[in-house]
Structure formats: structure tokens, C-alpha cells
Specification:
- Helix content is 0%, strand content 55%.
- With 114 residues, it is an all-beta fold.
- The strands form 2 sheets. Strands 2, 4, 5, 6, 9, 10 and 11 form a 7-stranded mixed β-sheet that branches.
- It is globular and about 40 Å long.
- The N and C termini lie far apart (37 Å).
Length: 114
């Protein structure tokens, strides 16, 4: 499975973006899917996670501002980012756990200006 993330960009604080992650194959059988981010000089961290049953979890720093969702028919994972802050500036990566393996997309840059 190949993942292609897009939707990043430059936005002012308080603004919104929607990230998309399109999979080359079906994600119907995926055990879980997630979005991670990596701030320059820091370790990659998970920001949002969704299970096959639809249960979601978020990092405390983004709870109430970010929303993870999936479109199984389109084999696409989304992350809605709202009320963005400069500290959300990072490269965002999508990840899928499928058949015992983890697949990662190339990152998409999100830059939030103050």
C-alpha cells in the first residue's frame, strides 16, 4: 500500500486546513490509521488515531481542534485542522496498520504564522 498525503500549506493562526491521505489500495481491512507530526528538532508524535471500529483518540495538544476521519470507499484518511496555532507547525504524516505492517506516507508541511 502506498500513501500520498496532501493538503498542507501556509495558514494564519486561527485558520483551518484539511489534510488528505489517499491509499493506493483498499483500507477496508486496516486495523487502525493515524496522523503523526514532526516538529523540527523533535521526535515524531501521534496527533490523531482511528480504529477500524471508528474509535478515535487525540493528543491533548490538539483535542477539540483536530478531527480524524476516513472514507473507506475512497480509501482516504483525513485530518481536519482548526483553530491552528503556530506551535502546530510541523510536517504531518499519515500511517496505516494493515496485515501486521505499518505503512507511512511522505509528509506534508503545515506552517502556521502568528
Amino acid at each position: 500500500v502506498q500513501l500520498q498525503a496532501c493538503g498542507g500549506g501556509l495558514v494564519q493562526a486561527g485558520g483551518s486546513l484539511r489534510l488528505s491521505c489517499a491509499a493506493s489500495g483498499s483500507i477496508f481491512s486496516a486495523n487502525s490509521m493515524a496522523w503523526y507530526r514532526q516538529i523540527t528538532g523533535k521526535a515524531r508524535e501521534m496527533v490523531a488515531h482511528i480504529t477500524r471500529s471508528g474509535n478515535t483518540a487525540y493528543a491533548e495538544s490538539v483535542k477539540g481542534r483536530f478531527t480524524i476521519s476516513t472514507d473507506i470507499v475512497k480509501s482516504t484518511l483525513y485530518l481536519q485542522l482548526s483553530s491552528l496555532k503556530p506551535e502546530d507547525t510541523a510536517v504531518y504524516y499519515c500511517q496505516i496498520s494493515l496485515n501486521g505492517m505499518d505503512f507511512w506516507g511522505k509528509g506534508t508541511q503545515v506552517t502556521v504564522s502568528s
